[in-house]
């Protein structure tokens, strides 16, 4: 048997043992835990306040848009950070490209501002 196949065999054995161990521990937990169904266990409970009314509530779409804008401008930092750490290595080409990137983001922010998406209430 080649070294490559032996490596895969070792990885397969570890995978099988780990799956068997997880299944065994979950099975033991299922056998040992007490089963006492009570209706109070199945109601929603949050922040120490008992629920009133139904659990369904409609959210306004502006909260989703606000969250999406947050994610968009949060992810931009992932693209700006590598440039900021190696700006001198990229030279003028990198400077111009980052300027175009920031300009596009600024236009998106201006558009969201004009549409009053950034207003929370």
* Count of individual domains: 1
Determine the oligomeric state from the structure. Answer: single chain
Sheet having the most strands: none
User: Which series of helices and strands comes N to C?
Assistant: HHH
The proportion of residues in beta strands is under 5%
What's the rounded overall pLDDT mean?
Answer: 85
Low-confidence stretches: none
What's the tally of helices? 3
CATH topology assignment: Methane Monooxygenase Hydroxylase, Chain G, domain 1
User: What's the CATH architecture?
Assistant: Up-down Bundle
* Overall morphology: flat
Overview of the structural elements:
The structure is a single chain. With 121 residues, this protein is an all-alpha fold. The protein has a single domain (3-114), classed as Methane Monooxygenase Hydroxylase, Chain G, domain 1. Helix content is 69%, strand content 0%. It has three helices and no strands. Helix 2 (61-85) packs antiparallel against helix 3. The radius of gyration is 27 Å and the shape is flat.
Main traits of this protein?
121 residues; Methane Monooxygenase Hydroxylase, Chain G, domain 1; flat
SSE map:
Layout: H1 3-32, H2 61-85, H3 87-114
Helix pairs in contact: 2-3
Quick rundown:
It is built from three helices and no strands.
